[in-house]
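Researcher: Here's my situation. A collaborator sent me these components and asked whether they could plausibly form a single complex. I don't have experimental data yet, so a predicted model of the whole assembly would be a useful starting point for our discussion.
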Amino acid sequence: MILTSDRIDAHPQGQPLEVPRGTHVTSLAREAAEARGISIVEAGAGSTCGCAAPEHCSCGPTPAPPSMMGTPVPDDWARTMERRRKVDPSIWSTSPTPKPTSPAAAPSTAKSPAAAVLGPAETHVDACVMDSGGECREGVVVVTAVGRNRPHVLAELATGIADVGGDIQEISQRIVDDWFHTILTVDISRTKGAFPEAKAALERLSRDDDYTVRVQHERVFRYMHRI
Amino acid sequence: MPFHEREILETIRMVDLETLDIRTTTLGISLRGCVRSTVSATADAVYERITSAGEKLVETANSVERDYGIPIVNKRVAVTPVALLGDAVDSDDLVPIAQAMDRAGGEIGIDYAGGFSALVHGGSSLGDRRLISSIPKALASTSRVCSSVNVGSTRAGINFDACIEMAGVIKETARLTEADGGLGCAKLVVFTNAVEDNPFIAGAMHGIGMPDEVINCGVSGPGVVNASVAQLGPDASLGAVCEEIKKISFKVTRMGELIGRETAKRLGVPFGIVDLSLAPTPASGDSVADILEGFGLERVGAPGTILCLAMLNDAVKKGGSMAASRVGGLSGAFIPVSEDMGMVRAAEEGALSYEKLEAMTAVCSVGIDMVAVPGDTSAETIAAMIGDQMAIGMINDKTTAVRLLPLPGMKEGDTVDWGGLLGKAVAMRISPFSSDGLTRRGGRVPPPLNGLKN
């Protein structure tokens, strides 16, 4: 069943509206309900996800598939669901993707499917990055600096990396004529802030009249140069 | 070091010096839940749907761009062909829906919204007819909305009546947007064999076989390909040039795959496809024409142009298809004239004729794209020009498109400069001989034998 805003408009203001389990509520209907103080309640809902057996529920923020509604969730099905959800958070979802700004769609305590996979929203450093040899390289970035050579360049870079808590793994530096380029692979998985902050802090070392620092995920290079 | 420093520097050079970028991350949004009984209620539902689904698109794409250091030039939305919403409403005027798309696009900060579209290759329904008649006013009263109409397919043949109707729509759109240099026509395209997952404007739409929402990604990179061909030198064989293009296309497409997947993951929506098209921009060094000239042509349009374009298109597909898990959209080499400074130069110098361009469309990935023609070109002639393109697509079982700019008051050789991605158009010479007898017949072109595949 689909609940549209037309039905919300016809419903008495402030009165809860009971709908069958698994009902798809359109986003316009959600907003209309919120505006008119109508709470939408699934019939016989025993948990926030709509499963009939909350004690066995493993749905998290995603409702169970329609075919499983109202029946106990077998363990093997739960395991399959869990595996599939890791691959595609929207799998089996019968509701629109929860939006953080819509209270009716995403209660403040619920994590979005993406957040469930990604972890905290502010952290975008990959949990595990594999190099060409299959080695797991957590939170590794490539820092490159190019500019006119002078004393203390490498020291400044190393100090900047140390200041954000980065761990230099490898260094390569070449000087051609009066110009240098330095490439460092840096583990920032133990940095004090998230990747964007660490990147911004290191790139602030750049100066137009001196040298340029660039920080990129190791994934950029792995995607481009490795199959 | 897990990467050779040559590889790291190559990537950085591509971005900094060779204008490697992701042309677009396009969020496809299904509007199938937005059908209401009135146009205004439908428009409200469309606005609400786009703003809620696309609320985080620009912010997320910007964060991916910042984190990975690969520019994402455009953020776009593609919606279900709006004609599908048009049957049930109480009015023939669907312009309010286009305006709602435009307002929603402004609200979420995107560059373009595609999908004010209809599919009429097998004939038109009430909603299709309403949409087509609304196109000129819709494009004249909005800034982000793009429109497309599919008038033919290899399976259904060509709806030539629709070609004739679209010729009139193009002329009327040019008239209504005359004050903006006929800009409305740059946002209107006529297709045969249109695809459902095209992330590129003006033909972007969210097909009816698509999920609620999906992220599709369109790469770019003519500058990167051009640089790699140039470093081979003039003595490399054609086989060596194709090999080099395959390799570099692989790398460019991998960036699209990475950025598209990451954007989709952060938005919490499925990732769809990478469109591995070489899409030029008017920026210096970002030209498909330059690549063709790099093969050894003095100017694009010279004898051998079609051979070079065929090799380029094929090598891009081969390299790109190995790099992406799902390739879709148009995927090949685009040859828009106004958006490619090398093409503009060739047209201005007389090296590139409209007829040569038509022949090129048989081996490129789209068709007659961003081609200005004199403003007094008749609707009958434009209908026949559309018919020619549709025939090339239908017979060759490929997508072809027509984005013509019959700009009012323009004469052969005149130019109009829109700036930005749309570039500068020069009105090309069109055969003065009439096709009026053909267009007077109208009707439908039967599907070809190669459409019978089951």
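Model: Some features of this prediction you could bring to your collaborator: Chain B has a mean pLDDT of 93. The interface with chain A takes residues 1-3, 5, 7-9, 11-12, 33, 44-45, 48-49, 52-53, 55, 63, 66-70, 211-213, 251, 254-255, 257-258, 265-270, 322 of chain B (CB under 8 Å).
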